[in-house]
Amino acid sequence: NKKNKKIGKTKKVDTTHYSPKKAAIWGAAFPGLGQIYNKRYWKLPIVYGILGTVIYFVAANGKSLREFNGYIRNVYDSIPNPAPYTNISLAQIESFRNTYRRNVQIASFGTLFAWGLSIVDAVVDAHLRSFDISDKLTFKVKPQLNYSNFSYYAGIGVHLKIK
Predict the structure, then answer these.
(1) Cβ–Cβ under 8 Å, residues 111 and 105
(2) What is the full DSSP assignment across the chain?
(3) CB neighbours of residue 119 within 10 Å
(4) Which residues contact 107 (CB under 8 A, 6 or more apart)?
(5) pLDDT at 88 over 70
(6) 9: confidence class by pLDDT, cuts 50, 70, 90
(7) Residue 53 CA to chain centroid, in angstroms?
(8) Does the structure show a pLDDT above 80 at 72?
(9) Distance between CA atoms of residues 126 and 26, nearest Å
(10) Buried b or exposed e, range 4-29, using 16+ CB within 10 angstroms
(11) How far apart are the first and last CA of the chain?
């Protein structure tokens, strides 16, 4: 009887070996190449979105930093600054400049951190690519009540079952 038979879908298993070292080298050469090497194309918008955001902050704050450096030069050269900054002191201009400098430094660190995180993601993905995630494995975490030395205590039970 056809209705009683289970039709099992067979998953196509990727048996290609992915080298974590190669994924790290590719990812370090250019952001996102490690994800391309691992064929995880869906991660590219995430990598480029994060990197694009922090690079935008580097550029925007860098532009303001250069602008305020120019205002400081104007004060030393006795040249009047543009309209919103005509009546503010040198200390205030330096304070603005220092804020933008700090923002550039933080965003630059964020860029390096995001790039490094994409490399780590590529390496971990290459390592775990051959990990078995079939239905033959089950992993259950559930609360338990245990009894020891004439007292009860709560705990967490972890059960790993291989079918």
Answers:
(1) no
(2) -TTTS--PPPPPP------HHHHHHHHHHSTTHHHHHTT-GGGHHHHHHHHHHHHHHHHHHHHHHHHHHHHHHHHHTT-PPPGGGSS--HHHHHHHHHHHHHHHHHHHHHHHHHHHHHHHHHHHHHHHTT---STTEEEEEEEEEEEETTEEEEEEEEEEEE-
(3) 20
(4) 54, 55, 57, 58, 61
(5) yes
(6) low
(7) 12
(8) yes
(9) 12
(10) eeeeeeeeeeeeeebebebbbbbbee
(11) 27
Residue found by looking up tokens 């290459």 in the block = 126
Which pair of structure tokens corresponds to residue 113?
A: 């951190």
- pLDDT value for 15: 59
10-68: pLDDT as tens digits = 656 555 688 999 999 999 999 999 999 999 999 999 999 999 999 999 999 999 999 99
Q: Are 95 and 56 in contact (CB under 8 A)?
A: no
Per-residue tokens: 72: 């400081």
Tens digit of each residue's pLDDT (9 = 90 or more) over 136-158? 677 788 888 877 788 877 888 87
Residue 111 to residue 105: CA distance in whole angstroms: 10
pLDDT at 152: 79
